[in-house]
Design goal:
By secondary structure, the chain is α/β, with parallel strands linked by helices. The chain is built from 5 helices and 8 strands. 32% of the residues lie in helices and 29% in strands. It has a 4-stranded mixed β-sheet with strand order 1-2-4-3. Strand 5, helix 4 and strand 6 form a beta-alpha-beta unit.
Length: 227
């Protein structure tokens, strides 16, 4: 699994963090402490995303870096920070589609202790194709990720379908659910590394119906990539 290194972005697969058996800690006070204590110097080719980052401004930063052929890495700490990053990427992707570009991300753990919600989002662009939106999801595996979802089973489900060359569409509603989806994708990458496979994620906004109500949600299309 990729481990973020602020010194270089030349190879996102050259540094791997070891597996840990601890479950993801969703304790909000601990997440807040991580945000307060994070005093690292942010490299020029990275963007630090906080829990209060403005999504519109963030998406513009992301778009600008992509249009300059230098997609910046997003550095996050805490569930709220991760949520803002995903929303920023989704907005940026919608704008880049108008320029025939598609934006995906690959999550990498920034800490050897994978119980800490410290994620680096490595961004990449490719030529946009309408088919890549996967609007016909009949051949996909659908997952619903909740705030209480266990990370490892979700990660295992994603990895299993990627091995079968089937893409996964995970839907999440709420900050904790979005963070869990990102962490699950990160763990799935770890599970697949030795098999020469990787996961890239295309995020998008969507709506779901629940108890007669229409809710805003985030949709994570998890696609296979050969290493």
């Amino acid at each position: 699994m990729d481990r973020y290194d602020s010194r270089s972005r030349s190879s996102t697969r050259s540094r791997r963090s070891p597996q840990r058996d601890h479950p993801y800690d969703r304790n909000s006070s601990r997440n807040k402490r991580y945000e307060d204590d994070d005093l690292e110097v942010v490299p020029d080719n990275s963007i630090k995303v906080s829990a209060t980052s403005d999504v519109t401004a963030l998406s513009q930063q992301i778009s600008d870096s992509c249009l300059n052929n230098d997609p910046h890495t997003l550095l996050t700490i805490g569930n709220n920070s991760i949520n803002q990053a995903v929303k920023g990427i989704a907005v940026a992707n919608a704008e880049l589609n108008k320029r025939n570009l598609q934006l995906t991300f690959q999550p990498a753990f920034r800490d050897e202790n994978r119980t800490r919600p410290r994620i680096a989002f490595y961004l990449s662009t490719s030529r946009y194709r309408q088919d890549d939106l996967h609007e016909d999801e009949s051949d996909s595996t659908q997952l619903t990720v909740a705030g209480q979802s266990k990370i490892k089973p979700v990660a295992g489900a994603i990895a299993g379908r990627i091995r079968e060359n089937t893409y996964v569409v995970a839907t999440a509603v709420g900050v904790d659910a979005v963070s869990n989806a990102v962490l699950a994708a990160g763990n799935a990458r770890l599970y697949l590394e030795s098999e020469g496979l990787d996961v890239k994620v295309l995020p998008a906004f969507t709506k779901i119906e629940k108890n007669g109500q229409s809710l805003n949600a985030l949709r994570f299309i998890c696609l296979s990539e050969r290493i």
